[in-house]
Amino acid sequence: MPQAVLNLRRIEFLAGLPMNAAEELASIAELRRFPDGARVYTQGDQVPGVYVVVKGGLKVFRTDGRGRVQVLQFLKVGDCVGEVAVFDGAPIASSAESHGETECWLIPSAPLRQIVHRHPEVAEMLIHHFAAKVRHLVTLVETLSLHSVPERVAQLLLEAHESHPMRSLVEFQETQEDLAQCIGASREAFSRALRLLTDLGLIQSTFPVVRILDLGKLQRYAKG
After folding, report:
1. How do residues 127-172 score in pLDDT, each as one tens digit?
2. Where are the domains of the chain?
3. Cyclic nucleotide-binding domain: which residues (predicted)?
4. pTM
């Protein structure tokens, strides 16, 4: 199976594509390469399609135009962005920068919409995909509005821990600045929160490596 087809099938809502449809999309997808920190698109752009990460990652964020940044998500291999703008026709509501040396397949909008119309099973998976995005944003709003910065940092540690639940060590690829922007805080506030959680005996931090010392107490602290 061609690599481009495998890359497309890594996307949740395209995983069930019939082979001929997957090959059709792969044949028109364009591979784009970005050096670390390059702007992939800017908030308010009319994006040409869906970007699928096949190497590196993307930092997806919004800005208020005055220097304040809210990171919405860090996309990894197999993740995609731009699908909302493809189906509602509006300018994209976020910006994205490459995180490391990054490669993305760009799937053009019109052919993707046509395939969704022809394959109801893809449309159903797309609905599930959008529902998961809504849940993610609802959780983000709750975190930013109802929890203190130390509680948000505790939640961030727990989310990172979920990918390796049998290990007590969490190692971040992102900087403290990046992570602070994920939880709507300054880098200084993020650093103070790490020190507080350390003083409480919940973690041991030698950032970017953090050791969770008491998972149960950290979970209770994160809930407020």
Report:
1. 888 999 899 899 999 999 999 999 999 999 999 999 888 889 999 9
2. 3-138, 147-222
3. 13-133
4. 0.83
Shortest CA distance to 168 belongs to which of 138, 122, 204? 204
Q: Which two tokens stand for residue 96?
A: 């994205």
Distance, CA of 49 to CA of 79 (rounded, Å): 14
β partners of residue 32: 104
Span 3-138: which CATH code? 2.60.120.10
Pseudo-torsion of CA 67, 70, 76, 82, nearest 10°?
-90
pLDDT over 90 for what percent of the chain? 67
The CATH T-level fold of domain 147-222 is Arc Repressor Mutant, subunit A (1.10.10)
Most confident of 33-42, 78-87, 108-117: 33-42
Residue type, position 4, single letter: A
Name the β-bridge partners of 108.
49
Phi and psi, residue 221, nearest 5°: -65, -40
Rounded to whole angstroms, how far apart are CA atoms 142 and 131?
Answer: 17
In angstroms, rounded to a whole number, what is the distance separating the alpha carbons of residues 150 and 163?
Answer: 21
d(CA 195, CA 201): 10
d(CA 224, CA 146): 9
CA atoms of 39 and 104, how far apart (whole Å): 13
